[in-house]
Amino acid sequence: MTTRQTRRRIAATTLAIGVSIAAITIPPAAADIPPPEDGWTLTFGDDFTGGAGAPPSQDWIVDTGTSYPGGPANWGTGEIQTYTDDPANLAQDGNGNLRITPLRDGAGGWTSARIETQRADFKAAEGGAVRIEARLQVPNTTGEAALGYWPAFWALGSPYRGNYWNWPGIGEFDVMENVNGKNETHGVLHCDVSPGGSCNETEGIAGSSPCPGETCQGGFHTYRFEWDRTGEVEELRWYVDGQQFHSVSESQINPQAWANMTSHEGFFLLLNVAMGGAFPDKDAGFATPTASTEPGHPMLVDYVAVYNR
Length: 309
Fold this sequence. Notes:
Blueprint: H1 3-24, E1 41-46, E2 60-63, E3 82-83, E4 90-92, E5 98-100, E6 103-104, E7 110-112, E8 114-117, E9 129-137, E10 149-157, E11 172-177, E12 185-190, E13 205-209, E14 221-228, E15 235-240, E16 243-249, H2 255-262, E17 267-275, E18 299-308
Parallel strand pairs: 3-7
Antiparallel strand pairs: 1-18, 2-8, 4-5, 5-18, 6-7, 8-17, 9-14, 9-18, 10-11, 10-17, 11-12, 12-13, 14-15, 15-16
């Protein structure tokens, strides 16, 4: 074999190895669930490693329609889409992510998806703490094309199941809300009575922050909520990529309202992309689709995790 032939064979082998490695490399979007830090325990996790087109695992309930049976219309927020279990709206992508994709039909109606955990017992033990966390990318669309998009990762108090009219007394922790394609994540506590009360309903007690570095729409970010009961006064905290941007202290809330929110079994987690609706933060603007709103931009969820200490 000539020197030139040897070089060609080496080059071809190197290229084949490179292609092989590229074929099995996990895309940058996918990441394992982070192991718990010292003193913490992973009590729930899903990193959506099913095959392309697969539904969520049995750990999740898929909500469908425009309300819970006997509950408030339009899921209580005025959102206009219909939730389905159609893989076009809800499916794992085969690359370690769950896709929730809003779509518009020929008549102008919207469909999307919403899921919630089977478990409804996530809470901080007395003297302990809980972290609720997800790594996700909100729909990658901005400007007029994003008007009406309202992706969210949140938690509702377990007594809501089967009642559907006891909100906000049972408590709601909005870990991440984004609206109208803005580079801004919102963390919100809902509690007490509506309207008014010590949680300022219907807006709730809210904080917001731009996403660090890359925009919320431009890449994956980690959104975390903590309920800390280790001190004399309990505290709720919100983070994006490890940076705290909002907190609420037990001392800010009516004592009976705090007890109503925290003394039940716990919370269940939800992921959804709504279209339209009365987004509570009026400064951010209601989520209102227009003729310019583009369908088909998914929220990608890499993992969801709950840690307890």
